[in-house]
Amino acid sequence: MAKVLAVLSGGYTDEENNYVTGWWAEELFAPAMELEKEGHTVGIASLLGGKPIVDPISISKDFDPEGKYKKLYESGIADKTTPLVDVKASDYDAIFIVGGHGAMFDLAHSEELHNLINIVYELGGIVSAVCHGPAPLIYTKTRDGRGLLDGLEVTGYPNDKEPEEVIDLLPFSLEDELSRIAKYSKAEDQDQYAVWANDQILTGRDPRSSELFGQELAKALSRREEKREEKYFD
Asked: Most exposed: 112, 154, 177, 226, by fewest CB within 10 Å?
């Protein structure tokens, strides 16, 4: 079946303000489980490789009351990520960028990641991101200089959900930056929300949308695999 690359923030620490962030556990594991249910495989990468920092709040009892994602994290699944520089983009049918505030710090302006995104997209693959994961997509330019998300419908973590204590510590507002270049929507009436900008770009709103986001990505990849098989046997 399809091969998918999950990209994690390596993490960010602000010692002066006692602030530590990184990737959000549910936003890796929930989509990955949906992808694996469909028979797809998931590889994991981060900017520098190795063991990236998980946002500690994402595996706290407040956000992971059953300890489901904490257990997966402690199993070591994400302990040995591949450095982005060593990833061969053409090996993957899709890329998905995991959220967590960390993505706004180290992934948003990463040229290595922008290049990977462009290659996957140009080869017809799917580019996807959940929660704060769309941050790098904002600054990804295609080879003709056009913004990847220009004028498209997208979602991501909304301003009114950002914790007050971290707003001034963030490098930018995700909602504001998405709204500047694209048609931002958050579908407040929906418990989970994921939107296709076109048949190659998928974004999910928040941690609660992780499962739906994963289902949408998994089904789309399965449909593509079925079409390939049909074409092959024809």
From this structure: 226
Distances (CA, A) of 1 to 7, 134, 226: 19, 25, 9
In whole angstroms, give the CA distance from residue 225 to residue 20: 40
- Residue-wise pLDDT for 214-226, tens only, equals 999 999 999 988 8
How many structural domains is the chain composed of?
1
d(CA 28, CA 180): 27
Q: How far apart are CA 164 and CA 22, in angstroms?
A: 18
d(CA 150, CA 135): 14
pLDDT at 227: 77
In the predicted model, residues of the chain with pLDDT beneath 50 are none
**Domain span at 42:** 3-233
d(CA 78, CA 150): 32
Distance CA 73, CA 207 (A): 16
> CATH number for the domain including 117?
3.40.50.880
The CB-side HSE value for 227 (13 A sphere, CA atoms) comes to 6
